[in-house]
Amino acid sequence: MSNFVDRVVLHAAAGDGGNGCASIHREKFKPLGGPDGGDGGRGGEIRLVVDPSVTTLLDFHFHPHQRASRGRPGQGSNRHGADGDDLVLLVPDGTVVLTEDGTQLVDLVGAGSVYVLARGGRGGRGNASLASARRKAPGFAELGEPGEQLDAVLELKTVADVALVGFPSAGKSSLVSVLSAARPKIADYPFTTLVPNLGVAQAGDHPPYTVADVPGLIPGASQGRGLGLEFLRHIERCTLIVHVLDCATLEPGRDPLTDLDVIEAELAAYSADLSNRPRLVVLNKIDIPDAADLADLVTADLRDRGLDVFAISSATRQGVHALSLALAARVSELRAAAPVPVATRVVLRPRAVNEPDFVVTAQGADGFLITGSKPLRWVRQTDFTNDEAIGFLADRLARLGVEKELARLGATPGVEVTIGDVSFEWEPTLSGGGYVTAADGQQPAKVDPVVDDEIHLGPRGSDDRLRSSVRLTRSERMARAERARGFDPSDPADPAGSVDPAGSVDPAGSVGTVGSAGSVDLESTVDRALVEVPGSAEPGGPAPQ
């Protein structure tokens, strides 16, 4: 197994939030102690941090599944749960984070760069946090929100100053071994180098520079032939491209100029950004007489193209010192001309003032789908085994305007509504009155609570059916008491409702008493008709026993 991995698929799962606690304070002599359930802790998040000491993604190759710890649940006595521990993953400098479909999320360059790959879930609120003036002792608590989960592709693009490119067996690994202390594998057969090799070189008074040996390229490498497609990405970050041309090759149809044209074509096909990158040409293996003669022949043509040419021999180290000095000087110039790196700015993207909190989408003729961060989070945090928690969710959705939007789109009672993974039947009467579609079929109109014997609930917390309650008013109770004493308010003998000294009830149901002058004072007036109550006397009927 190779010890170099430059592409992995990472399965990241942030920690779930802890559940809130539903608890009531219990203490001697305090029977109504009130809610004291604590909130759940936040789930741990997963962060990617660039560490210069890490040079490969090998650890994630063997451990592709990474999960952060979850938050602890809340407890009674207002004890909040502990937050989950964040998981920090160290990655090499030059790591690119992509989605599965190839969309780039972030390019991590520079020691200490940080990216939050997956955020932990929010902790659920305990019933102490849910208490209000209208709901003094909630009997429920919120569940913890699940943490984010995603499959991310990590690709490593080597950060080096000089990239050595060329055909297989052109002598790139040998050149790295003489320029630096790196010891890559060297053999006399093609594709000896299977992974990029890095070396640190220094020449003269110039600062050190890094050299990357990219595996050999062949025609069609940009389309996947050979190993080129796997490692062409490592050339993108290099400051200087060095073409290593083999002057001693015996393959037919190959010569330094032809090899240079082929490699340039593959680089252009892979990325247009590489066309303007500074270049330098190295004619290798001049320790062989025929190769030295060939190098002398092509040097003039290469310089006519505006390229600096160096003839060397990695075996005898002829010309290597001059090449190293030239590379160090060129890298120093390019570093000085490079723009000053600016620290990554934190970009704040607030929501637009007209951005809706949710979107209702019709699904065919018998369903609606509700999307939005708030409704989705509320559903995830609702305990559907608790009726009070379900009512709390319905209140929040109604205040958000979900039910009004459903009614506007023509939703009918019983239609299936889906939020996240939860589907339920919509009952519009639960948020105040029923709705019917107008004659034009467009705008729904609100109807009375009782139409054609159909009962509708009023605003949440009330019930329009209470209008027909059997509970008697004070006037009705007094009239009932008078009937019990033998006075009939419907007696035609007293149409004006006059009373005797003992007092009686007039037909209108008012109670009369004799004043000091013998006049009648009305103590109260029945403001609604008598209702039929089991066990009570009907108007004009016998009094109850």
From TrEMBL:
Where composition is biased (Basic and acidic residues), the residues are 453-488
Q: Which residues form the OCT domain?
A: 350-428
Q: Which family does it belong to?
A: Belongs to the TRAFAC class OBG-HflX-like GTPase superfamily. OBG GTPase family.
Which source organism?
Frankia umida
Its ancestry begins with: Bacteria, Bacillati, Actinomycetota, Actinomycetes, Frankiales
Subcellular location per the Swiss-Prot or TrEMBL entry = Cytoplasm
Gene3D superfamilies found in the cross-reference section: GTP-binding protein OBG, C-terminal domain, GTP1/OBG domain, P-loop containing nucleotide triphosphate hydrolases
* Keywords associated with the record: Cytoplasm, GTP-binding, Hydrolase, Magnesium, Metal-binding, Nucleotide-binding
Which residues are in the OBG-type G domain? Answer: 160-332
Q: Which residues cross the membrane?
A: none
Q: Which HAMAP family match?
A: GTPase_Obg (MF_01454)
* EC number of this enzyme: 3.6.5.-
Top-rank taxon: Bacteria
Question: What is this protein identified as?
Answer: GTPase Obg
Q: Top EC class per UniProt?
A: hydrolase
